[in-house]
Amino acid sequence: MAFETKEELLEKYIKMDKPHCPHCDREMTLWEVPQHAVSDGLGWGTPYLFICFNDECPSYKKGWDHLQEAMEQTASYRCINEPGQKNFEYMPVFSPVGATGQILDDAVLIEQEAKRELAKQTFSLLTDYYMSKDWDEILKVLLDPKIPPKARLKAAEMVGELGDSEAAEHLINHKFPTPVLVAGVQKAIEQLHERHYTRECPYCAEIIKKRATVCKHCNKEVPRA
What we know:
Layout lengths: L5 H10 L13 E4 L15 E4 L6 H14 L4 E6 L7 E5 L12 H26 L3 H9 L5 H14 L4 H6 L6 H18 L1 E3 L6 E3 L16
Antiparallel strand pairs: 1-2, 2-3, 3-4, 5-6
């Protein structure tokens, strides 16, 4: 079974038909699971759930009295469903606004869909740039913070394969937002050095020839590679 990233799961769940709460028949809401579980701290096993946030739901309304009587706890529970599963379970909440901060509302879903579409368009452009060996345009994609990380990672691979030696300087002096992208860029830099027989000066970090014994930028003697 192939591993799916959180981003890929969200894309799949957005396209799903939302389940209906078995108690009130209201369409359930897609919800992002918090980093720590709300109830027992054991984790959910999934990054997203569907939840009934209908305050008039009979299950939710009765839950306040039930938990007060059974556990002397001011709380209720909301009906939840794991995407793709048929069974429904329950999650405790301690106020009417409990867990609402994790709701993926329409604005969030629209934003996610826009990011997905941008990634799709970017991959198409990268294919064209790769076929024409236009590494300069690929580099622009890699350095653009608005481009989704997955597309930027692919651009890093292409720059490492196609870029001129000067591409390494752009990458060395640029900050990237995620560890995965940083690792991908570092791999591209190493590939560029290998292809063009270059390296970084250990004193000023400028690009020099691998066989150089004196840095042309800082004029310091450097050990042979």
